[in-house]
Write a structure and sequence with these properties.
Layout lengths: L10 E6 L2 E6 L5 H12 L10 H21 L3 H13 L3
Length: 91
């Protein structure tokens, strides 16, 4: 069991997947090691090629069709083929 802190420390928010996890400053353990490794790798990481069009395609074309395929039991291959054709059309 962790010993109580003599004075409060500012909590850090550490990303664990998509969830923010509060953690006391200076906490040791696996999470601290993962943070260290992630920070070391930032110097060689390539930025994600964000594109407004990619978000639009995902939100307006791909996601609704995949949801429909799952709910209605449609062929996902055919649905994605249709989505691909729509995504390649000029906007």
């Amino acid at each position: 069991m962790a010993k109580p802190l003599e004075k409060p420390v500012k909590a850090l928010e550490v990303t664990a997947g998509q969830r923010r996890v509060p953690r006391a400053a200076g906490e040791e353990g696996v999470a601290a090691e993962q943070d260290r490794v992630a920070l070391e790798q930032l110097s060689v990481a390539d930025p994600w090629p964000w594109s407004v069009d990619l978000f639009r395609i995902q939100r307006e074309i791909v996601q609704p069709r995949l949801e429909s395929a799952v709910i209605q039991g449609q062929n996902a291959r055919a649905i994605l083929s249709e989505a691909r054709a729509l995504a390649l059309e000029p906007t």
